[in-house]
Amino acid sequence: MNPKLTIGIPVRNGMPYLAETLQSVQGQTYGDFEILVIDDGSTDDTGEYLQSLRDPRLQVISQSNQGLTATLNRMLRECRTPWLVRLDADDIALPRRAASVARAIERAPEAGMFYSRAKHHDHANGVSLVRTTEGSPEELREQTRRGYLLSICHSSVVLNVRKTLDAGGYRFDYKVEDLDLWWRMALRNDIVFLPEITVAYRLNDASLCINGLRDVARNSLFVQYLLLSQLWGRPATNYAEVRPILDCILDERKLQYRERMWKAAICMSNRKYRQAALHMAVAARISPARFLSRCSYPVRQNKMIRVGESPAKFQQVSELLWPSRVARECVTPNI
């Protein structure tokens, strides 16, 4: 029988972490899958390392630098199996991940997407869990219809290739291509949550999420704006026009809190526990309620995490976000 899974890894300058990532894939307890690696114009030793591997399941495609979104869309087009198991080039697939995915597909073959819990790589306690929206397909769809985005670790995702392409594939670069796909998939297909940890997500000092946190937060609001435009039947305008309005919606205290918590997480990954504690203390002072909510997350029963601001905030500036002069046809957004 032909494999039904492809483990897809986009990479650009992936060394030294890529070796550990691929070793985690090759060490799976379930081995009936293909491995697709697309090297997006690496300038380090990535290409040489990939050429040194001798695994009949491995397909390597090299291309000039196209960016993450274009690479992910090519991965969907090049995938030779019905299901694409996503993994970033510095993350770790836990040994039973492929087996869990295969079982999940048997139980829900018509799903559009699966995802699971994730943990921060090298963290040693319960705070290591990545905050994830947990719920049934119906609950995830309802939250999306209420105008909120889903918190899903990209490396934990398994995509139905055909249904993902039918939904339009990935759009946008700069760490919002995943958020934008999740809402479109949720409105069209069942997204199935697997209540187990299948991946370890690596944080490091070069993390784009921390170095460009304000841009990521603003771009996330743009994705929420696109969702609300769809839900409310209003024509979305382009990013450049709405960016100043989105800056007004940004919650500065939340941004400061998130920056401190990201820094704390990175310090913990590097075993700098004293510095991590200092960052967490500042975060707790900035937003005690958010800090207590984060600390209680591992033991909390309700984990329907919401991403984004209240849709009421968008309504307050609706005349600026959806001016009447805009034609009643959505402009293809472009970041």
The gist of it:
This protein has 15 helices and 10 strands. With 335 residues, the chain is of the alpha/beta class.
How would you describe this structure to a colleague?
It is a single chain. The chain folds into two domains: 197 residues, Spore Coat Polysaccharide Biosynthesis Protein SpsA, Chain A (Alpha-Beta Complex); 114 residues, no CATH class. An eight-stranded mixed beta sheet has the order 3-2-1-4-8-6-9-5, with helices on both faces. Strands 7-10 form a two-stranded antiparallel ribbon. The N and C termini lie far apart (42 Å). Helix 7 packs parallel to helix 9, helix 11 packs antiparallel against helix 12 and helix 12 packs across helix 13. With 335 residues, it is α/β, with parallel strands linked by helices.
Q: What are the main properties of this structure?
A:
disordered C terminus; 10 strands; Spore Coat Polysaccharide Biosynthesis Protein SpsA, Chain A; 335 residues; alpha/beta; single chain
Topology readout:
Elements: E1 5-11, H1 17-26, E2 34-40, H2 46-52, E3 58-63, H3 68-78, E4 83-86, E5 92-93, H4 97-107, E6 113-120, H5 137-145, E7 149-150, E8 158-160, H6 161-166, H7 177-188, E9 191-201, H8 208-211, H9 213-232, H10 239-249, H11 252-269, H12 273-286, H13 288-296, E10 306-307, H14 311-316, H15 318-321
Parallel strand pairs: 1-2, 1-4, 2-3, 6-9
Antiparallel strand pairs: 4-8, 5-9, 6-8, 7-10
Helix pairs in contact: 7-9, 11-12, 12-13
